[in-house]
């Protein structure tokens, strides 16, 4: 089922001070099927949050249209809102002077959840998210990781059909982000619902998302599965090989093979080669054994999502 559709969606901001016009989204046309984690990957300022804000009915498009669960974000937002929720990373959660339980109960009442059911859900999630010991502590005393877990619980209270996660692990330590990633995967598996996730962490996009849209300067530049995107990283076929002592001169005589790197240490030779075609690797292996040397290690270097990102966007996700 199609849960999101955008047609030539554009959003322009005018900077109040400089009067400069910023095209945060440019003709974004997307069709997103439900039951999966759909990732939006992009650098700072790429337009991720703008897209999420339009889809969660918090911001209007300048032109084009967007439909969530078949409803138009502009004039049917009230039909969309009960079925979605949004959790943003680094967001200040709720009211600092309330404790976790009070905060979550407060939000459950805004979502119109019957009191008894709300309390049951909150207790269940507090346990599942390992927040039992902190349940009665004021929110402004929580660590960043604990706050973010509480936010995620808040996002689940209305059992959303689509959960929007805008950089859900930003600023979290390894353990808290791992917890959140595991939970996200489990939730999708168990419920079959949909998650739209933005991130600028390549590894997170690769681990979690069924499909990734790469966005830059407001445009979607690529949309595919993580493995097919990675294949766009580089056409080069690279191998890393380690052998017992051996002179690498022989490689110069195999056409289509070039040495990229070589190191001689502790009675071992490590080298990296680039091949013009895949079948050349068997020539290399045969030659090594003919020369009386043993292969200790041989690995084909996979292209990374980072390589693909640079290829598609023209610059790395983190550099300025
Ligand atoms: N309310 C606003 N007024 C003016 N410009 C804005 C406004 N909101 C966003 N922008 C600009 O629109 C562009 C896209 O911003 P957006 O927040 O969507 O990017 P992002 O991909 O979420 O970035 P980040 O990774 O930093 O969160 C940026 O150039 C930003 O400065
Ligand atoms: Mg953002």
The secondary structure category is alpha/beta
Measured on Cα atoms, how large is the radius of gyration? 25 Å
Largest beta-sheet characterization: 6 strands, mixed
What is the element string, with H for helices and E for strands?
EEEHEEHEHHHEHEHEEHEEEHEH
- Count up the domains: 2
How many strand elements?
Answer: 14
Ligand identities: adenosine-5'-triphosphate, magnesium ion
CATH-assigned fold name of the largest domain: Rossmann fold
With helices defined by DSSP (H or I, 4 residues minimum), what is the helix count?
Answer: 10
Q: Proportion of β residues?
A: 25-35%
The span between the termini is 39 Å
Protein architecture, described:
The chain is an alpha/beta fold. It folds into two domains: 2-93 and 142-231, P-loop containing nucleotide triphosphate hydrolases (Rossmann fold); 237-300, ACT domain (Alpha-Beta Plaits, 2-Layer Sandwich). It is 32% helix and 31% strand. The protein has ten helices and 14 strands. The strands form three sheets. Strands 6-7-8-3-9-10 form a six-stranded mixed beta sheet, with helices on both faces. Helix 3 packs across helix 4 (115-128). The longest helix is centred in the middle third of the chain and has 18 residues, at 174-191. The protein is elongated and about 80 Å long. The structure holds adenosine-5'-triphosphate and magnesium ion.
